[in-house]
Design brief:
Elements: E1 7-12, H1 20-32, E2 40-43, H2 56-67, E3 74-78, E4 85-89, H3 104-119, E5 124-127, H4 142-145, H5 151-158, E6 164-168, E7 181-184, E8 194-198, E9 204-209, E10 217-223, E11 226-232, E12 236-243, E13 248-256, E14 331-336, E15 342-344, E16 347-358
Parallel strand pairs: 1-2, 4-5, 5-6, 6-8
Antiparallel strand pairs: 1-16, 3-4, 7-8, 9-10, 11-12, 11-14, 12-13, 14-16, 15-16
Amino acid sequence: MAPDADSMLMVGDIVNSGTSGEWNEIYDVMDATADIRPRQTIAANGNHERYAPGGFDANMERFYAFAEREKPWAEYIVEGPAGDLPVIVLGQEFTAPTDVAMSEAQVAFFEERLAHWTAHDKQVVVMTHFPLGNTVSASWLHWYSEHHQMNDRLTSILGNYPNAIIFTGHTHYPAELGDWAVQRRTADGHPDGFWAINTIAMHVEWDAFGENTAGIREETTRDINQGLTLDSYGDRVVVTAYDFASDEQLRQIEIPNPLVEFDAEVRPDDGGDPDPGTGPDDPGTDPGTDPGADPGTDPGPGTSGPGGSGDDSAAGEASDRGDLAATGSELAWGIGAAAAALILGGLAAGGLALARRRRA
């Protein structure tokens, strides 16, 4: 990332198992790249942060020390010429009953902050390591769709906020797939739903093979160096998938902020045209499945889960005002969902980075 970048968001699996030695390697890399890294790092916890001996609490303490906070969830405000961009981080609190077990307090915080920023006409970035069921690539497989204990509630809450964009990792699936970025609608939510985007893998790519869902298998396809950038202009964000090794743009999607007037005069200064068929009018996927996967289970053969509308409805409603103000800016802030931030011992750390960009 450029030296003027302001924030790097990491969506988890920063280390391989969570040992002190692995974290020391990360600190060494962070120190060695201090002059070229974004000034701020925002991290979510993934499953690989909690595999080291010593127990869940000891592993999470090492993650908290890196993240510089005391719990899995948090809110950050990235300030820039295009206005504030809120970033909400969600994560695992307990060892059971699923990989992302969380308290009512975390869910209440999430819903309240979404409502708050919607009242201020802001698009909101949400980060969590595991995908929600039936959103991005492979999340329709049962071993990916049941990680979140509150899967249906979180999906239903997000369904009320078309200004929300959730970035997830874990699945290692490529940006070339049609469900790299999806507009996910719910039965009880806003007609436009919310956006879900796969941050793609930084180092090891997977894909699914098989004649049918029941016999599907996953295989490692290749080593890669890929990730995303996200530019925020106040009236929209532009997400671009890159192959960093070849300096090639893979995909791009523009997501308007539905709460403000679109300013067509302000355009990104880099990146190509949005992909056909990935714009705001794309149909969403079916509602997600019920949670229930055991923590720590490895992927295995399975079938996609049944559809559902979520177990609870969110209280917040997306703004639908008529007095919309234009907030487009000649200066934009960019977030890079670049899973290519760190490579240590063959492990890829997923992440997003925020950079200032000026229109040519």
